[in-house]
Fold this sequence. Notes:
Blueprint: E1 18-25, E2 30-37, H1 43-53, E3 59-63, H2 67-75, H3 83-94, E4 103-108, H4 110-113, H5 123-128, E5 133-137, E6 142-144, E7 152-154, H6 160-170, E8 174-181, H7 189-208, E9 212-219, H8 227-247, E10 256-257, H9 274-288, E11 295-298, H10 305-315, E12 323-328, H11 330-340, H12 347-365
Parallel strand pairs: 3-4, 3-12, 4-5, 5-8, 8-9, 9-10, 10-11, 11-12
Antiparallel strand pairs: 1-2, 6-7
Amino acid sequence: MASASFVKLNAPSSPWIGQRSFSQRTGSPAVTRVSVIRAGSYSEELVKTAKTIASPGRGILAIDESNATCGKRLASIGLDNTEANRQAYRQLLLTTPGLGQYISGSILFEETLFQSTTDGKKMVDCLCEQNIVPGIKVDKGLVPLPGSNNESWCQGLDGLASRSAEYYKQGARFAKWRTVVSIPCGPSALAVKEAAWGLARYAAISQDNGLVPIVEPEILLDGDHSIDTTLEVAERVWSEVFYYLAENNVLFEGILLKPSMVTPGADHKEKADPETVAKYTLTMLKRRVPPAVPGIMFLSGGQSEMEATLNLHAMNQSPNPWHVSFSYARALQNSVLKAWQGRPENVEAAQKALLARAKANSLAQLGKYSAEGESDDAKKGMFVKGYTY
Length: 389
């Protein structure tokens, strides 16, 4: 008769230990194996970085658009998509005086991470001087997922470890990987599993190289579905994501999440008010996200600047198990572009516009925002069907 055997590896000496046990039947009695995984060499730093980003009254400025998408932003104000124009715009953002009071981290595109300002200062140093943690987009974009219901998957795992090591040397301390789930497309079980597995592998590789991974399975706003349908899909997706994060021994205290808010589809006949969005979104998070996770940094997903801020404010009207904040791109940049118009004499006005939006979202994170005095532009939605980065 077979006897139970126990395998123990790397007895723990650190508080950050993942332990997993399971039974496997090989005839009659169960053979039980227990594996204990030692924390990685960056564990303490990862936890510290995540807590720094998830600090009260602060959130993330996302400026990690690809060169092509940045070109679309520049085209909206009549500028050509050149490296010099991209540099000028991102320099404007990252050198805004006082930005660190409201922004704790900024996600950069690779070009910006290795770029300097026109006077020779590294963009990364501009952030560090304001106690803003530099981050980096590491995925390689979405491609069609064969065998699915016209869905996509996110590529970029090949070579990720070596790229992440280089990003760390350049000063990045957190990473972002965006994959998407489409409700009108099902979503299929294949697409959900692919999204969850890809995020988990990316997260494990990032942590192994000193980068706090932002876990982002964006549930697209596209569709005419109800808010209840969004809730159902979001719970399913996040359940799968955390299953695979655990399977890959990802340190939950050293990650950040970038979820979509739970809202009706963009084409649904009824819009949801901020209180309803907050109720549904927090319900989903409390059902699926462990309190060990330091921060929930929401994406805006095409909401208007004011809508994204109001929804965040509504979610911070009572204490949450995690820091509930923002990681906005369009909902922080729209007013800035309109104020700048590509003119050097407008830089100061554009930086004031950024500071105003950052402050509004800071107040929302603290549950103290008021929409009084918001401009008409801030109320305009920015949803684009089939939006790509």
